[in-house]
Structures are given as C-alpha cells and as structure tokens.
Design brief:
Blueprint lengths: L5 H22 L4 H10 L2 E4 L9 H17 L2 E4 L11 H14 L6 E2 L8 E2 L11 H13 L3 E4 L2 E4 L6 E5 L3 E5 L3 H5 L3 E4 L7 H11 L4 E5 L6 H10 L6 E5 L2 E2 L15 H6 L4 H9 L14 H7 L10 E2 L2 H14 L2 H14 L9 H9 L11 H5 L11 H7 L2 H16 L5 H15 L4 H12 L7 H8 L1 H7 L4
Parallel strand pairs: 1-2, 10-11, 12-13
Antiparallel strand pairs: 3-4, 5-6, 6-9, 7-8
The structure holds one RNA strand.
Length: 483
RNA sequence: GACCCUAUCGUCUAGUGGUUAGGACACCGCCCUUUCACGGCAGUAGCAGGGGUUCGACUCCCCUUAGGGUCGCCA
C-alpha cells in the first residue's frame, strides 16, 4: 500500500458522507442505521503515555498529532495511561502528564476524569489506566493459550510469533516489510506475561487498542519495527490491526537523541520559561508537518482544518529553540492585554517578586509597558523587576560606562527639572528631558541612557518616559540621585 | 551483529522530470527609533557522494556515506 492509499482515501470519504447524512437523518428523526454505520467508521485515536515523571516534547507532539487527527476527522481522542510498571509509576508522574496536556489545550474525549487510577473516567471503554485492566489481560492471555498461540516458558508466558516477514502498512512511511533480525531468527517468540505475572507493553498495548476500538495508531517512529509484533498479535486475536502512522522523532540541535536532560526536552521547561501554550502547539506542528503556502504562524482552528496524516514528513526534525522563541514572541505580542498581564504577574510571582505589596493599578500599568517587548514571560524578572524592587541592581560595567562625571552632572540637571514638573506624566517627562538636552546642547540619547540605567539598572527595557511615570516622582528622584 | 526508517540553506520546511530551487528562524548591512523589541529594505547560505533511467534530474531506480530507530521478563 502506498502513502495516502486509495483504501484510506475511500474509507475517509465514506466517513465524510456518513457524517453529512447523519446530520440530515437525525434532523428527520430516522438516523438509527446511519448512527451504527458511523460508529464503525468513526476515527478513534489514542495517546498512551507511560507516567515517568515528565512529559517529553516528542510525546507532547505525538499527543498533539493524535488530537489534531481526531479533531480533523471528527473522531475521538482517547487518553490511556500505561502505568503497568508499578515500581516506576507514581501519582505525581501521572499528574505531570495530565497537567501538561491540559496546559497545551489537548482535551481528551475519553480517558481519566481524575488523576487517580482507581477514580472516575469518561468514555465507555474504561478503565483508562492499565493498572486497572488486569482482568482483561488475563482473559486475553487465556484466549491466546486456548488458540495455541501462547505458551508458558520459565514462568513467563510467550507469544508464538509469526516466522514470516510482516508487511506494515503505514500512512506516513508507506509499506514496510519487516524481516526478522538475526537474534529474532534464533527465537522469534517474545514474552507477553512476565514471570511475576505482569503483562508487558507489546501485549497490553495491543489488547487495549483492540478493546478500545482504536482505528488509527499514531505514535513515534521508534515503534515502527516493533509494529510487526503488534500486527501478529492482532491477527492472533482474529482481528484486523488498526491503521498505523509512525511520525518522525524530534532530535537535539546536533542530531542526537533528545533525552530527559536536554534543553527543551521536557514540556515543563516551557511552562517554567513562560512560553504561551499556543506558541508551543504551533511550533510543534511545524516539526514534521507543514501548512504549506509559506505559512508558519497560524491559529489552531486552521491547523485542525489542514492537518492530515499522509502529509506528515518521513524524516526526523531537530529542535530549534530560536524559532520556538520567535513564535513565543509573536504570540505574546498579539495576546490580549488582560491575559498578558495575568500570565506576566504569575511569572513574576514565581520569580519571587512580591507583587501584592504594590497597588493593582501600578502592577497593571507596569506590566502593560512590557507588552510587545518580551518573547517569553520568563524574561520579565530581568526586564521589569525594577518596578518591584526597592534597590536597583546596576551592572558595574554599565555603570562605569554611563555614569561619567559629565553624565552625572547632566542627570543632576535633569533631576532638578523633573523635580519641578507640575505633572509627572510621560508626555511632560519627555518634554522636560528634551528641553534639558537642548539646554545642554546635546541630543536626547546621552541623557536617556544614564537615566534609564539609574532607574532600571539595565541598558534595555520598556519605554523610558512611561516607565518613569509609572515609577512615580519619589522613586525616580531617589534613583536619579547618583553618587 | 541483524533488521527498519531517513537525507533540499546552520535549523524548520515548499518543491513530486524542464523553477533565476521559494518561505521562515538564525546571522549580516541599512532605515526607523530614547533603549530593547517591532516594522521596512537588502544580503550570505542548500539539493550528501557515485552510478544509472531520460532529450532533460532536487524530483524515479541502485550503491555508498551519514544520521536516527529497533532487536528486553522497559514503555
């Protein structure tokens, strides 16, 4: 089968027709047959993470692609937690995944309704935590044993693997004919139940996909060659395997595998650095997929419309933090003011600034001057911290450069002018500064730089006149008193 | 060792036999500007190598090379 096969296209078209018929049929009150037809055809995808304590950026993209495909086709997005490794899986680890998905806005139609494995869930195919599905696995093992497809070996249960090459039809990669490796030729059978009674990944993954009626398995390419095992398992159960789509991996900038500790590997780092979730989602879409027509930044609704599996690229992508930051900046610039201030305030509090000591209007005005200037909220502490500190920390190197005796004398003159100002507002401050500069026979620049440094401690920051107004006369005069 | 996937500027990508190989990030220059950012204009930079097929290959086939993945009583 070729990429974007005829089978798939026809199948997809049928679903579309069914969907539109469904609407009319329901409106006329006789859509029963169509509904069951729809039920069979409806796309069901799943994201099946293992709670390891962090959500890998590649995992996040896998979740996103699944979510996009579900939304694009009008299908169902299932979340299943693969917590079979009791030693490793903790409540906190599960929290991290659910929190990450919620942060990204990837809502699931079926799956856990709480973070508790034994807690409630939504959907008809639960439980959605593998730790709660032991009985189902037992039944399936027995089924295989009864069929003579599984047998006990040294306390474990092994599956009788097909000795012949298996062709994996993949929506992204095309047909993949998988031969046995040299080791597999020695013993192609593999363990499905450990000697301690716990089922292993390949087995539970297939059983759950089968029981949950998953129609499309969209996952990382690292699973591609193992898919032969999964197909053999499905066949052993007497059912057709789902359609597969193996998406390329996200690598480090140097092309190496992205592991836990690498920059940007954990979704948490984007939250910590103050990315906008919509920026992360947009960036992730651009890795391994393209909206074409030279488009880079586009709203989610648009992506949902355009996204499809056959167009997913076949080669791995490298993670580019610069481009991520660029998109971050774009989204922060266009964010509505209230949300910008809200997220900005959160970031500053996280960075240790006691915003509550300041009047709400002051905080609001201060944050507003940062809008359109920063790329990520994590920059706010360094960018706008001067608003919320009693002491201004000035870089000694910059001080030496800007605070020359000449500059100090000029600033002193400016300070006197500011002191006399009837109204301490941006427009007046600007007039006063320019007038002072004129009196001194210099341009505004040489006066602006030391003033900014004295008041903010940095060479770059929000609009000077506005920041002075917000800071207020007392603080400004105090900070301009350079020694 | 075996098996599998992949290969367009530094990076993400458009491109499906005939293009001056397009865009974005990054970088560089200029303009704008109180700083920074934004914006505007311009620029540097790419089809991994070798064989075929063809009138003609970035595009199709093979080989090499390189990168990635898998072969677990981890997921």
């Amino acid at each position: 089968m070729q990429k974007g096969s005829i089978t798939n296209r026809v199948w997809y078209k049928i679903r579309l027709i069914a969907a539109s018929d469904h609407k009319t049929a329901c409106n006329s009150g006789s859509g029963k047959a169509i509904v069951s037809f729809l039920f069979i055809m409806n796309v069901r995808v799943r994201f099946a993470p293992s709670p390891t304590g962090f959500l890998h950026i590649g995992g996040a993209r896998t979740a996103l692609f699944n979510w996009l495909y579900a939304r694009h086709t009008g299908g169902t997005f299932v979340l299943r937690i693969e917590d079979t490794d009791a030693a490793r899986n903790t409540q906190e680890a599960t929290d991290v995944i659910l929190h990450g998905l919620r942060w990204l806005g990837l809502d699931w139609d079926e799956g856990p309704a709480s973070n508790n494995p034994a807690g409630p869930s939504k959907g008809d195919y639960g439980p959605y935590f593998q730790s709660q599905r032991g009985e189902m696995y037992k039944k399936r093992v027995q089924e295989l044993k009864d069929k003579g497809m599984a047998y006990e070996s040294e306390g474990a249960v092994k599956f009788k693997m097909d000795r012949n090459p298996i062709v994996i039809p993949d929506l992204v990669v095309g047909d993949v004919r998988r031969e046995l490796t040299d080791r597999e030729q020695v013993d192609p059978d593999f363990v499905i139940i450990r000697s301690d009674g716990q089922p292993v990944f390949h087995f539970v993954n297939v059983v759950d996909d089968l029981d949950m009626r998953i129609t499309h398995v969209i996952r990382g390419e690292d699973h591609l060659t193992n898919t032969a095992k999964h197909i053999a398992l499905f066949r052993a159960f007497g059912v057709e395997p789902p359609k597969y789509a193996h998406i390329p991996l996200i690598l480090n900038p140097d092309g190496s595998k992205m592991s836990k500790r690498d920059t940007g590997a954990s979704l948490q780092s984007y939250m910590d650095d103050g990315s906008a979730p919509e920026a992360v989602v947009n960036y992730l879409c651009l890795l391994g997929w393209s909206p074409k027509e030279n488009r880079e930044k586009l709203p989610l609704e648009e992506i949902v419309k355009l996204f499809d599996l056959p167009q997913v690229l076949r080669h791995n992508a490298r993670f580019d933090l610069d481009k991520m930051k660029w998109l971050d900046g774009e989204y922060l610039r266009e964010m509505n003011d209230d949300r910008f201030r809200e997220l900005g305030a959160q970031a500053l509090r996280r960075a240790g600034f006691a915003l509550d000591k300041y009047p709400a209007d002051y905080v609001k005005a201060a944050l507003t001057t940062c809008k359109g200037k920063i790329k990520r909220f994590g920059e706010l502490g360094a960018y706008a911290g001067f608003y919320f500190s009693d002491e201004v920390k000035i870089d000694p190197a910059l001080a030496e450069k800007e605070f020359t005796d000449e500059a100090k004398a000029r600033v002193k003159k400016l300070r006197a002018a500011f002191e006399q100002l009837p109204q301490f507002v941006a427009a007046e401050l600007e007039k006063a500064l320019k007038a002072t500069a004129a009196e001194l026979g210099i341009k505004a620049g040489p006066l602006v730089h030391p003033t900014r440094l004295a008041c903010t401690g940095a060479a770059a920051g929000p609009s000077l006149y506005h920041l002075l107004e917000i800071l207020g006369r007392d603080k400004v005069l105090q900070r301009l008193d350079i020694h």
